[in-house]
Amino acid sequence: MKILGIGNAIVDVICKVEDIYLTNNGLTKSTMKLVDEFEFKKLLSSLKIEETVSGGSVANSIVGLSKLKNKVGFIGKVNDDDLGNKYEEGLKNENVEYIYSKKKEELPTGTCLILITPDSERTMCTFLGTAGKINENDVNINSVKNSEITFLEGYLWDEGDPKKAFEKAIEYSNKVAMSLSDLFCVERHKLHFLNLVKNKLDITFANEQEIMSLINAKNFNEVITFGKKLGKTIIITRGEKGSVAISKNEVVECDSEKNLKIIDLTGAGDLFAAGFLHGYINNLTIKESLKKGTEMSSKIIQKIGARLN
pLDDT tens digit string along 4-34? Predict the structure, then answer.
């Protein structure tokens, strides 16, 4: 297998809202907030659902890699309930090997409410459900060993069982890539994430905000200096400023695509990672890999949701 993803198995529920909806519900635009089941249902009660799809950050990347004809798999915890069955079906339809045996769990399958405002920004409210209870027993060692890269997501990292699952996956991996996922995650787990980036990961994906927060940088030059000293590979997306790869001592830049009809930014980072990793495992240059990431993210932001047709 080329790449095995381990992440939150979350069913995405996509809705369009006005900015006032965020204000009225105390939500900060463009961030992810964890909510309980009660709050999730309350937020959803007055909304019209545009689309429901098997989601989760790394799962979106893995599906993107499958679309590019790579052999991929995914591990993520769902319940043996209606949404869990739909989740599994959704991945199998995308030619992703779903390496997880569903069983009856106390908590339902996780769900993420994705709120799209008129400026195309997305704000997420996630009820993790059983997805956040992933543990080391859910990680299939043979699948990890037989993959060229294990791809993890910062959203999944938490003290207790998820941390043990992470550690087990990293221990048996040939190479490890991880997305920092969200500014909220970085600020919540800063010391742990910094340790992972410095000591455990071969490839780190982040946006500019996330990496600057992680190392408390005052400007982007400090990020470049940090990346060069690290001696590994850091991939940073910078919105309209394009993207940057810092690999050992090399700094490679790639422009963003212009004049796009942006509809929804959901999945932009996930599909960028898919494009880059596709290049990386198929021996393209770093520049070519950045371009593939840019191409994939440019396609996804011109449609609703995080899946390419």
Answer: 999 999 998 899 999 999 999 999 999 889 9
Kindly list the strands in the beta sheet with 3-6, ordered across the sheet, starting from the edge strand earlier in the chain: 97-98, 72-75, 3-6, 149-153, 176-179, 203-207, 233-237, 243-247, 250-254
The ranges assigned to domains in the chain are: 3-8+56-107+129-300
Top CATH class, 3-8+56-107+129-300? alpha beta
Mean per-residue pLDDT for 36-51?
Answer: 92
| Closest alpha carbon to 294 in 247, 248, 260, 249 | 260
Question: Token match 């591990």: residue?
Answer: 75
Total-model pTM: 0.91
For residue 229, give every residue at least 6 positions away whose Cβ sits within 8 Å of its Cβ, in sequence order, or none.
none
For residue 245, the 8-state DSSP code is: E
What amino acid is encoded at 79 in this protein? N
**CA nearest to 90, candidates 139, 56, 116, 118:** 56
